[in-house]
Each structure stands twice: as structure tokens, then as C-alpha cells.
Please model this.
Amino acid sequence: MFETAEIGHRIDKAGYEQEEPLLRVRLLNLQYALLRAKKFPVIIIIGGVDGAGKGETLHILHTWMDPRNILTTAFGEPSDEERDRPRMWRYWRALPPKGRIGILFGAWHTGPIQDRVMGSSDDADLFRATQRIVNHERMLVDEGALLLKFWFHLSKKAQKKRLHALEKDPQTRWRITETDWERFKHYDKFRAVSERALRDTSTGHAPWTIVDGTDPHFRYITVGRAIADALERRLADDTVPPVQPVPPPEPPADGRTLLSALDYSQKLDHKDYEKALEHEQGRLSLLTRHKKFTTRSVIAVFEGVDAAGKGGAIRRLVSGLDARRYSVIPIAAPTEEERAQPYLWRFWRHLPRLGRVTVFDRSWYGRVLVERVEGFCAEAEWMRAYGEINDFEEQLTEAGAILVKFWMTVTPAEQLARFQAREKSPFKNFKITPKDWRNREKAPLYDRAICDMIDQTNTRHAPWTIVPANDKHFARITVFQTVSCAIEEALGR
Amino acid sequence: MFETAEIGHRIDKAGYEQEEPLLRVRLLNLQYALLRAKKFPVIIIIGGVDGAGKGETLHILHTWMDPRNILTTAFGEPSDEERDRPRMWRYWRALPPKGRIGILFGAWHTGPIQDRVMGSSDDADLFRATQRIVNHERMLVDEGALLLKFWFHLSKKAQKKRLHALEKDPQTRWRITETDWERFKHYDKFRAVSERALRDTSTGHAPWTIVDGTDPHFRYITVGRAIADALERRLADDTVPPVQPVPPPEPPADGRTLLSALDYSQKLDHKDYEKALEHEQGRLSLLTRHKKFTTRSVIAVFEGVDAAGKGGAIRRLVSGLDARRYSVIPIAAPTEEERAQPYLWRFWRHLPRLGRVTVFDRSWYGRVLVERVEGFCAEAEWMRAYGEINDFEEQLTEAGAILVKFWMTVTPAEQLARFQAREKSPFKNFKITPKDWRNREKAPLYDRAICDMIDQTNTRHAPWTIVPANDKHFARITVFQTVSCAIEEALGR
Model:
């Protein structure tokens, strides 16, 4: 990985002074073209060893381009708000919207490499982390981002020389502390670990550019050219990305599906319901006040057919919770700011801190349901969404979230009855629109999408609960019990 | 303040059971009407003494209305990200957008009252804090919010009775700890301080409703009715708020203004500029790396006429800074999410943490410049904006920010020359649009707005620096020196 970066590169002053002004003008013009086109974001990652000129290069980029349209984030110690969420949360917060350049100074690679060097993780952990990074980067690229990754390298000899030189000069001596030499001791280990991590995360869609950090001129020109070339190519590229010819899963040959096999006759009479409701409210209330719950969170996802009673189930569920400690996030059409980001961004921004409960009334599954059926996204997009969603959910659960997902469904006859009742009720008729009737006609397409979704995303860490909801009482109690059982299991009670 | 709340109120079970279902339906319908109209946000503040049923009332509101459209935030210990910013930042984060109900559980009143009770502040501090609250609430109301404030009260006798009762019952004994009795000791002080704070912040536009917390039925019905009545009244109110007939400041009788009195002949030749630039970059770089700077931040605001060289000045200024520690926020038209909030919201969201620098390329002053001149807001709105902005900036500086504000200006002849040069340059012609020519025709209106702005907002803690920028060199060095001098003064160097 580092071979070419160690053969010794340099650009002399004359060469630099000739190229630099041209490169600046080129970069600045490309940056403005990007801003005007507003078609994709540019994400530049800067990583590498200490003293290889990362900071200086960042500075040069800010000088060459218009810093008003660069969003730079340097990742140091996470804040307490960040520590309470999946590791990737802080990086999602820093993503640039379409048309802007975002520079991540030390991004998602830093943690896994450091953990392995310091011995707090093993090879298997590192491998899992790099696989996650590969998936994450592929998702960003698939969502349209131009992703450029630069790794600044110094050979061991060059590093040693640099430390000695700084130490000798009275002007710079203060910059070298014990810590620097301490870190130098780990050079070989760091090199080995980062080499592996870089190789595993250097993919066709997001390769690393290794930059020899010895000579400032060389590294500035290398990075500047790489950015300009990539931006130019991408801005000129008017081709629509070819739709991957992945055939969507076929329905079962006998027509029997998860939905048709459901038992819709399950019921709970009023008296039993009232009793069960009170019991379940108390149970959930105690569980979420449990001491152990302060290091966990609950994310409950509600999806379902129209008029299946999602709203009612959510209202009952949260009635057992302390209103100070939960939020319900209703998902409607994305806002302008959300549309300028990868589609999962608008869910990341609502993730709860530890000790809290967040209920999503509709969710990221819109991607593989309404967006698939209505053609709001391409086939390739919803096909890859299954894997992206599984990755996302795995990150949630690893960070302590207890994830429960409900698909609430009623039979077509029951849905019809409820639609008609809504139309007649003066309090509920705003809840029914021509869109609902249209959706009903598309039921077969939706059924197929639902079954595919459950097959593809019913994972061990984030299982689906399909709730036959013809009987509202039964459905609501099922929801309660599922949530409480999941918490009990997670708290080991 | 608390007299009526201590005479003993209650609603019996029968009365409650009769009113409750009607009130629920009414509230739910009003909530949906609010959501559909999307014209204003509702902010409900819940404060008061321990054990007066605040939490239960919150819970009831969540049960009565649709919790999917209530944003509740309970304010406990601030996070580290919150501590690094003005006290009000966390409340701005929690504001509901138009059409939604936001419940703030313990809001901006809590801190000042507690500080005074615990003796960490004096009467003058409390008074300043309540005046700030009055201004803040007036701003919210003026921006269209429906603001409802409930204070839950228990008399000393009732509080004592409650603590004893809980302690006696084996089922509830665990709820009472030493801390509760400790707090009870402060009852009189707490009552006196909160009475004063409530009186000072109970204004015509945002009065407190004091709720006797003894009887649950009474408090639920009181709060529910108050919300329903206020919402109903406001939703029915189609009148456009009368424009306050405040005459805008008159121009001076002799026509001499801040702008016409400027000396535009100040210059710096190229050699002196290069030398000064290098010196100033180094100076600013050292200042922002100074140990003392970790408890401060810099907020630099750039405003100015078109083609005055704001962009160039900003680029030079940040070239002296560590790219990891500053952001430049270009202010364009507000996004959809920003339009659903008070106009200052979009600036609050970009405030830097301590130790950082944020440059605003255009700013909140748009309110009293372009929005005034182009008629994007009413006269009453920009007239009150001066005071709102002064309040805002005072909060910034109190929280450690060093605030510098630049008005960059060129003579009409110089502006014309720059416009023409831009039109000819292939790299810059996108920077000039018909709008720029139109703005130029409105110069007299803008001049008036600019002079008013400077007169109204040139405060001790946030002074304006007017930069005659006919000579770019002179302007850029002036900007540098102003920022560095402000930091030096703030760090006491």
C-alpha cells in the first residue's frame, strides 16, 4: 500500500510556482460549478500519520478554494451527545449537502485503526469495522456523493528525521513532547494495522490515494490535482447511472405469502383488553425506569397498511411512558434540507440518546415500500436499500438501542370498512384522502413489496413483528408485549 | 401571585368525568386544525414546584392529544455541547416549527430562579435574567408563536402534607429522599424568588397561569381548558396584526451620514500590504491558539454593499486560522425548515462551540437591510428587530463569544467599476446578476437602512467597524487588525 509513497517524491519550487496558480483557478471554478449544479456533494477524507502535513494540506485547500462553501469538521474526542449514539452519528452530522464540499479531518477510519493499534480490539473486530466502512462508503457513493480519500504517509525514517529536526530547532522544540516519541514507538504496529485497514477499505468506488507527506509541494499538488480531476470528470458526466439489472425477488409459486398466512381472527374482548392494557402500561413504565435502562434506548418502528391503527397503537404505547423521555417522529415527505442528503440522513438526525425512547411513525422502510411502488426511486436504489437498512439497524443495536419493528395489517374487507367509517366521521374525515383509495388499488404491488421487505430485513438484532390488526385490542396489546419483552431480554431480566 | 392558587380548588370525580371526554375531543380537533393550518407554533411551558403534578399533567396532555405531533423536551443538566453556548441555545434547539405543539418542561425560567435561591446570583442578576426572558418571549410572540405558560403551585402546608403522606405509605416511601426534605427547607426562599420572577415575566403577551397543584382533576381541567381556549381563539383569528405606527428614524437634516462622512482615500500599497498580511496572519494564528482562547469563541459578521470585497476579506482572514477550528456560514435564502421558525433560529443553529471561530457571510442583519428595503417583512417587524438583535448579541458575548461586525462599503463609482469588471471576467461573471443592478438603483433606500442599523446596533459589547473598501488592501488589513485587537482585549493581553 505504501510502497510508491516511500520512493521519495518532490516537486521543486519552480515547478510548484508554475502549476499552483493554474490549479487554484481550476479548483475555484470547479467549486463554483459544483455549487451551481447542486447535483451531488463532495466528501473529502483526510487521514494518515502525524506530521505528514494533513493540517497544512487542509489549510491549502481552504486557501485555494472558497472557504465559504467548504464544511470542514475535525473529529477529536466525541461530545457526550455523540457518545450516546452509534459511532457513525457524528459523521452523519458532518455530511455536506448537495453542491457543497465537506472535508472530514480524521473520519470513520481513525477509531478502528487506533483501537487495534492500542490493543483494545482484535483482528476480527478490525475486519468487521472495515466491512462496515466499505458498506457505508458504497452507500454514500450510490447516493451520489463524490468521495475522495487521502492518506498522508511518512516512512519510519522520514518520521524519525522529522522529529529530530523539530527537536533540534529552538523555534519548534516545543512542538515535540513525550507523546510524540511514545507514538513513534508504535510506528510499525500503526503502519501494519493501517495498511490492512486501507487495503480493506480501498474499493473500486472509493479508493484511497496515498500521499507521500515528505515534500509540501508534492503533497499539495497531488491532492489538488486529484480533487480537480475527479470533480471535473464528475461534473462532465451527464449519463444517468445504469440501472443494475438485479431481478427483484420472485413471489412464491403457490401464491401463499407471509400476509395471506396470517391469522386475522385473534381477538381480545373489552374487559380483558382493559385489564391487559393497565398491566402492560405499568410493566413498560417500570422497565423504562429501570436503572439498567440508562445505558440503553428503545427505537420502535411502526409501519403498516393505511387504517391499520398505527396511530392508536402508538398513542397507547407511549401512554405507559414518561412524557419527558420519549419522542414520536412522524415521517412525512422529506424537507428541502433532507432531500439534499442521503435518504437515511433524516432518520439519523432523530436518533435518541441513551435512556430514551423514540417511536418512528413510518420510517426508513418508506424506501422499499412507497418509494418502490410509486416509482419515486429507481429499482437499483430500493434493491440496495435492504442491505443499507440492515447495516443501519445493526449500528443502532450495537450502540445500545433496542429495536422493535411492527408491520400492522388488516384484511382488505376490514380496511374498506374503516375507510368508510372515516369518511362518515366528522372528526376523522380529514384522515382519508383520494390517495388512500388509490393506494388500495395498488394493494398487490404493496403486498409484494411488504413480503420482500420482511424477508430481507427480518434480522436477529432487529426482527419484525407482524401484527394482524383486524381487532384493535389484540393489536395494541401485542405491540405492548413485544416492546416489553424486547426490553426485558435486553436488560437480562 | 399565588393567592388564588392557595384557597383550595378541586373538581369532583363526577364533574371531571363529565368534562374530560369533551375536552379531549376538543383538544384533539384543535391540534389537527393547527397542523393543517401550519400558520404558527404553540409553545407550552411547564414550571413550578416539585410534586405539584407537572409530570402527570404533561402525561395527560400527551394522552389527550396526538403525541406524534407534540415535541416535548425536558431540560435537565445541559450537555457539553450546550454548556459551550449561550444559555438560551438549548431552548432554541427545542422550538417547535409552525403547526406543531412544543412542550418545554422546565424552560428558561428555571435556571435564574434556582441560581437566586441557591445564592449563586443576586437580585440584580435575577432582574437582568427576567428582563431577558421578557424580551425573548415578546420576540417569540411577535414572530407568531402562541406561548402558554403554566406554573404549578403547592402551598407550604400542602407540600409538607404531601411529603409526609408519601413517606408513610410503604408503596411510595422510596420516592422521598433526603434531597426532598432538603429542598423543602428552601420552600420560603423558593416561593419568594419565584414569585418575583413570575411577576416580572408575566406580561400582557405572555402571562403565567398559576395552577393549584393539589387536586389532579382541577389541574388537568385548568390546563386543558386554557390550551383549548387559547388555541381556538388564535385559530379563529384571521386578522392581520396591526402594523405598529412607529415612525422609522429620520435621516439627518443636513444629509450628512455615517457613510458620506467616511474617508475612502485610505490606501496601502502592494509591498506594505504583503508585509502587513503576513504579520497579521501570524498574529491571529497565535491568538486563536492561545490557551485562554479555549474558553472563548469568535463570531465575525460580514455585511456590506455588493462588490465591496466581503468574500476576499473573509478568505484572507481565515487564511490565518487553523482550518479545523473555523467555519464560514454563507447566508442565503432561508430553507423550508428555517422558514417555519423565528427568523433568528437559523443563526442560533450555527453558533460555534468555545475555542472556535465562526464567520457569517451576511447575517441576521438581513432583517433590517434587504428584508426592510425589499418589503419582505413588515415595518413593525424590522423595527423591533434592532432590539431583538441587540439582545441576541448580548447573549453571545456573555457566553464568551468575541463578536466583531464589519460593514464593508465602496463609493458608487468604485462599485460601478467593479460590476463592469466582473461582467467582463470569464471567472467572475456568474457573480453579477440583474439583481445587483437593481439593488444599485435602490442605493438611497439601502443607505438609509444601513445608517439606521449602525445607529441602533452599535453596542459596547458588539460594535460595528465600518470599512471603507475602495482599496482592497487597506480593507483586508483593517479587518484583520480589528479581529485581532478584539481578541487581545478579550484575553486581556
